[in-house]
Amino acid sequence: VQIQCVSTFWISCFYLHQSHSEFSCEPIRLRMCQDLPYNTTFMPNLLNHYDQQTAALAMEPFHPMVNLVCSTDLRMFLCALYAPVCTVYGQVSMPCRSLCQRAKDECHKLMEIFGVAWPDDMDCSRFPDCDEPYPRPEDLLTGSEPTDQSSMTVQREYGFWCPRELKVDPDLGYAFMGRKDCSAPCPSMYFNHQELTFIRYFIGVVSIVCLSATLFTFLTFLIDVTRFRYPERPIIFYAVCYVMVSLVFFLGFLLEDRVACNAVSPSQFRASTITQGSHNKICTLFFMVLYFFTMAGSVWWVILTITWFLAAVPKWGSEAIEKKALLFHAVAWGLPGALTVTLLALNKIEGDGISGVCFIGLYDIDALRWFVLAPLCLNVAVGVALLLVGIVALNRVRMEIPLEKENQTKLVKFMIRMGVFSVLYLVPLLTVIGCYLYEHTYRSIWETTWMQENCRRYHIPCPFKVEQTNRPAMVLFLIKYLMMLVVGIPSVFWVGSKKTCFEWASFLHGRRRKDGVNESRQVLQEQPDFAQSLLREPNTPIIRKSRGTSTQGTSTHASSTHLAVVDDLDEPASSVHSKTSYHGSLRRTRDDRSDTMVYRGTEERSFHGSMPRLDHPLSTHSSLHQIDSHSRPGSQRDVSEAPPTLITHGTSASNSQAAENEATSA
């Protein structure tokens, strides 16, 4: 016989003994259902009330009708639904349709007077068509078998019922496994105390390593703030983000589950449960810092690939990229900030009893899908696309444009550094995304397994017809937490060089160079002008210029090989910059005007010492007129035979003038 159900709350069936051994007969405590032919019932009842207290509250509207005895059948009919007779386990004895119809017809008018409507889930058409009293004699006999349609054995999946121990105040807005006002057990649903201790210490050690590496990168930048310019400057901000991420995980290790879990309190929490929402201020702060800087670090990596793309494809120079710094900062900090505020408004914060921090998506699959996986996957896709385009463009420059062997080596070295850094970032990040996807896929199976293992402990319905059970492996969580922190360590490989060692040695010993060069930017070797290297003829000598300490004057649209300068600046030079250079060169002009210069003797020096005589009249770069070694102080020398000199600064000379020069000075 098929019995129709009016709603999802209608229960017309029950478990077999094997599927739910925890349910047993319990004494009837409902005041309305005392002194019946039976005195035991079971919960949940036929209207899906979890316990007798809930059933008693639902019966309150019918008390006036029962007290006035509008129908002799009403009390029995109500008790058949709210406190059904407990028969052989796995059997449900339902009232007949005739009993329902008599109670409804006789009490209909009185119910209208009291303003009580007949509930839809008590519709008489939903009951078996029979005319027998309730309970039947067979229902009162232990071990009897049902003989007709009014009592039948049916199996059903109840779903998850929130245990009494995990119920919380409705005002907190908690939810767990689709049930409102319910929270997950703390510290973990899946691991025992010994496993949790190992995972926590593992996270603590890795967080210390990551914090040390990223903090070293940031402090190296602070020692020499002008060393790392665009396109590599985003690496510094990326390191700052993971300083904060590793710091939060380290604090979570120290605090254990004191922040991520609610302590037991008689008035609010019957058991230790996972913190949700923003009512815990420290947990909210942990979430804001951890989520904001995790997303910001991912965005800064995308910006790093954008700056590399601008330098490699449209051939932007450092200054041109730096002009967009305000936009970069607005995007890198603004987008994660907007996501963080949105999650706070949606009250999606969840405590992580394993690591001791607070994040999102630990129990809410939708939050994990849209606020963690989607942003990370989008950033990876955009970053990898820009990275590949930039590498292809630089490789085309290396293959098609003739460069000196020195420049070729530096360009290849820079491309290798860029590729290795990107791999060191992408491998951990992709591993984290893979762990999240694995969690997203198997979370429902893990929860079903947890229900099956704990339903008897919490006295809740056990899952019915479980086809697959599985628990998460501890190594999966170890890999996830490891990669979440290791992803910040590659920044230290970018700053690791001899230059960094020299700077730290000088800083720790308190030494400062006093040779007139900006102490925050030690340029120890002249570098070739890569833009001129690309534009010159194959047989034209390379024109070298003094880079000095200025961060200005770089061509707005420099050659792509200018990226190699970034790599070259970290190498110490073997020769010291000539002190006769004064941020540029003295060039001779080709006009016929004659002029007279008054040279002072060796006792009166220029900014960088005395000026030696020019070896060639057409010197074009980084040279000064030499004075005869026997000239006396204060004497004047007629130099009208030679063209007057013009003081220039590095790149200010035009390409046409450079082409007219016939030789270069060292």
Automatic annotation (TrEMBL):
Residues 588-618 have a biased composition (Basic and acidic residues). It is found in: Apical cell membrane; Cell surface. It is a multi-pass membrane protein. GO terms for biological process: anatomical structure morphogenesis; animal organ development; canonical Wnt signaling pathway; nervous system development; non-canonical Wnt signaling pathway. GO terms for cellular component: apical plasma membrane; cell surface. One of its GO terms (molecular function) is G protein-coupled receptor activity. Residues 196-503 form the G-protein coupled receptors family 2 profile domain. Keywords: Cell membrane, Developmental protein, Disulfide bond, G-protein coupled receptor, Glycoprotein, Membrane, Neurogenesis, Receptor, Signal, Transducer, Transmembrane, Transmembrane helix, Wnt signaling pathway. Residues 651-666 have a biased composition (Low complexity). Residues 548-562 have a biased composition (Polar residues). The chain crosses the membrane at residues 198-223, 235-255, 285-313, 325-347, 367-394, 414-439, 473-495. Residues 20-133 form the FZ domain. SMART domains: FRI, Frizzled. It comes from the Eukaryota. Disulfide bonds join 25-86, 33-79, 100-124. Gene3D superfamilies: Frizzled cysteine-rich domain, Rhodopsin 7-helix transmembrane proteins. Residues 535-666 are annotated as: Disordered. Belongs to the G-protein coupled receptor Fz/Smo family. This is Frizzled-3. It comes from Dicentrarchus labrax (European seabass).
